[in-house]
Design brief:
Helix content is 76%, strand content 2%. The protein has a two-stranded antiparallel ribbon with strand order 1-2. It is globular. The chain starts with a strand and ends with a strand. Belongs to the FNT transporter (TC 1.A.16) family.
Length: 275
């Protein structure tokens, strides 16, 4: 007999984890989210080097190159979940569960979101400056630098509503990745559960606000002619709003309502025979 985590057990587990996070002191949450921002940035840097360096594949089969980019990126998100770091976008869904059950207040939800976002911002910017720019990985002669510049240029020059809608889908998939990662009982299962949805949103070109906090500033350091205000108003704000809607309204609240009948009581995992 083997154990799996039922959906109701999983929602209760997330409820307890989110409630505990709401009780953390700001310095601890900031450090956790700072690490999360660095990990997401390092996954983005790996994706840039792998997919951006495959210039022949990019020219002859851009679809496969997008898939390659998506396949490399989840390394950072896997690190966030497995090591207990923190990510704003997954908090959008997780904090909705104890809030719906009236175990935390809306002000506590907003506090977690703001501190998490700030820490992710700091971590992503540190990674862009120290690990991408200062190491020479963004030098003009690198084959992936034009790839990064094109990627960031496209992100900043899309209509507001397009970025918003892409942000919704991006965080639906990110939160599903976190949900699936928590559902597994072993490390490999958690990695696979996380990898598939994250790979999907990246390969599809959706908008993840925290990843963009690395990609666009890194491109600006590499010479992209975009102002901070253009980045904030044309990409970061609509992407963040879309991420909130996708995570909170389309994942967190629906699952909190679907399994609200358990009233916060943690059930035992279901035992089944596995082949």
């Amino acid at each position: 007999m083997a154990q799996i985590l039922t959906p109701s057990y999983l929602v209760n587990y997330i409820n307890d984890a989110a409630r505990h996070k709401a009780e953390l002191r700001p310095p601890r949450l900031l450090v956790m989210s700072g690490l999360g921002g660095i990990y997401i940035a390092l996954g983005g840097l790996l994706a840039l080097v792998v997919a951006g360096g495959a210039t022949g594949l990019l020219a002859n089969n851009p679809g496969l190159d997008k898939l390659l980019f998506g396949a490399a990126f989840p390394v950072g998100f896997i690190a966030v979940v497995l090591t207990g770091a923190d990510l704003f976008t997954s908090n959008c869904a997780m904090q909705m569960v104890p809030w719906f059950r009236r175990q935390i207040r809306l002000g506590e939800v907003v506090r977690v979101w703001c501190l998490s976002y700030l820490g992710n911002l700091i971590g992503a910017l540190i990674a862009a400056w120290a690990f991408a720019y200062l190491t020479g990985m963004l030098d003009p002669g690198q084959p992936w630098t034009p790839y990064l510049l094109n990627l960031a240029e496209h992100k900043v020059h899309q209509p507001f509503m397009v970025v918003f809608l892409k942000g919704i889908l991006a965080n639906m998939l990110v939160c599903l990745a976190a949900w699936q990662g928590y559902s597994a009982k072993d490390t490999l299962g958690r990695m696979v559960g996380i990898w598939v949805p994250v790979m999907t949103f990246v390969a599809l070109g959706m908008e993840h606000s925290i990843a963009n906090l690395f990609f666009v500033p890194a491109a600006m350091l590499a010479g992209l002619d975009v102002s901070v205000s253009e980045f904030v108003f044309q990409n970061l704000i609509p992407a963040t709003l879309g991420n909130v809607v996708g995570g909170a309204l389309l994942v967190g609240l629906p699952y909190a309502w679907l399994y609200s009948e358990t009233d916060g009581k943690v059930e035992n995992p279901t035992e089944i025979d596995l082949p």
